[in-house]
Amino acid sequence: MDSGFFQIINRRKFVQGIIACSGLIPVIGKSAALNSKQESHAKSAVTVQEIIDLFLSEIPGAPYKQTVDTIKCGRPDQQVSGIVTTMLPTVDVIRKTANLKANFIIAHEPSFYNHNDETNWLEKDPVYNYKADLLNKNQIAIWRCHDYIHSHVPDGVLIGVLIALGWDKYYDKNNPHSFVVPEMKLKDIVDLSKKKLGISKMKIIGEPDQLCKKIAISPGAAGGRSQMQTIMKEKPDVFICGELNEWETSEYIRDMKLSGGKTSLLVLGHAVSEEPGMQWMKSWLEAKLPNMKVTHIPSGDPFTWV
């Protein structure tokens, strides 16, 4: 494997706006990238770091001292031939990226099966090495955009989901996760979500004919306490989430129902609930880099329902 190109980073920090790729390759500082931002709009020969810094320029408080949003492989100074946005950089997504002659993947979730993309425990694993070799062979860089896209105003993942569902017109920046829609039955919300988000099956707690107006939504996996606190505060007719621990929020909803409460639960699935956020990222990149080819490749739900 060409270690000069493929540098998997287990723990990285932003230091004065610079992403260091194993300390082996000179990198472009934030100030330099921002000074050339206007040039980046007009030219196609931009680097991985320049594109990252372009996005960071819109994030309050960026760059963060601690973040999982680091370059997972490739070089900061690598010139970008094309960009792919996706939820997870699966082997299939990498192959499709290579077929497009693109060499920069912006992914929302980890590349290597754990939150910090630590790889020391995977060094002898054939699955990891196959993926690493595939990236190296095709000279593809990966940057994770998780913390920053959620910190964008509005949250890029949340607004992407709302756009996909046709609910962005109800978005309230002062209370982004809760809104009121025209009255509809719970089963109609299920059907809408399945159709617009490409979901074959989902879990619900509630009566299909329940009338719903107030909706609280939390894509991804915010955690049980956060989910339940949202329900407590907003008292929605239905709470929509991506993923949950089945001994936390769902049990809270079950006990609520049994004690006279009305909130129903709709579980979309983690990957499909946040994928529209990376579609939003594609649109953002196209507006900022009109000469760059940007493609969204959905990673999809890994499960098959039987």
Layout of SSEs?
Elements: H1 30-35, H2 37-42, H3 48-56, E1 71-73, E2 83-86, H4 91-99, E3 104-107, H5 126-137, E4 141-144, H6 147-151, H7 156-165, E5 178-185, H8 186-197, E6 203-205, E7 211-218, H9 224-234, E8 238-241, H10 249-258, E9 264-267, H11 270-288, E10 294-296
Helix pairs in contact: 7-11
Give a written overview of the molecule.
With 306 residues, this protein is of the alpha/beta class. The protein folds into two domains: 30-152, Udp-n-acetylmuramoylalanyl-d-glutamate--2,6- Diaminopimelate Ligase, Chain: A, domain 1 (3-Layer(aba) Sandwich); 156-270, 3-Layer(aba) Sandwich (Udp-n-acetylmuramoylalanyl-d-glutamate--2,6- Diaminopimelate Ligase, Chain: A, domain 1), CATH 3.40.1390. 36% of the residues lie in helices and 15% in strands. The protein has eleven helices and ten strands. The strands form two sheets. It has a five-stranded mixed sheet, sandwiched between helices. Strands 5-7-8-9-6 form a five-stranded mixed sheet. Helix 7 (156-165) crosses helix 11. Mean pLDDT is 89; it is low at 7-43.
